[in-house]
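Recall the central idea of this unit: under ordinary conditions, the amino acid sequence of a chain determines the structure it adopts. In this exercise we apply that idea directly, starting from the sequence alone.
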Amino acid sequence: MKILFKNILESGFSCDFELTVDESHVPGPVRGVISIQRAANDTFYLSGSARYIEENDCNFCLTRFSTEKTVQFSFVYMPLEAMNNNVEENAELAFDDLDVCFYKKEEIDVKGLLREQILLNTNMYPVCRQGCQGLCTVCGTNLNVEKCSCVKLEVDERFSKLKELFKK
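Accordingly, the structure predicted from this sequence is:
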């Protein structure tokens, strides 16, 4: 989905969308709303939100689970020439500069923007639920489903002092 800036009126532009992104952990559509406001000097304010289902494998028990996610985004789009005119050598970025994007053509690719926001919002260490017990290190049984009768190895005696710390 591409939006042409020249078609955006002074009153702005808003629309609902439903897209698919090419990410294996987002199997279904991404739904949301996007709005763009025109500002001075060919600058545009883009904001919106998107909802989607994220599927992951738990890092502890390897069970597949789904989570509904919502991501909010907000950007300032400026023409590329504005960046070239305001470049200072050894300039430092301010926090607000991280939300500024530049456009070369008179359009933006909303699908690419959404894909980027979904990747930034992806859980890097997914766990199916709080208190997940994981897998038995001996037999591989999912300890959330059933108990196993494996004999757990004792801790190396060199680490026995560390065990006392956990008792406190």
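Helices lie at 80-85, 110-120, 160-167.
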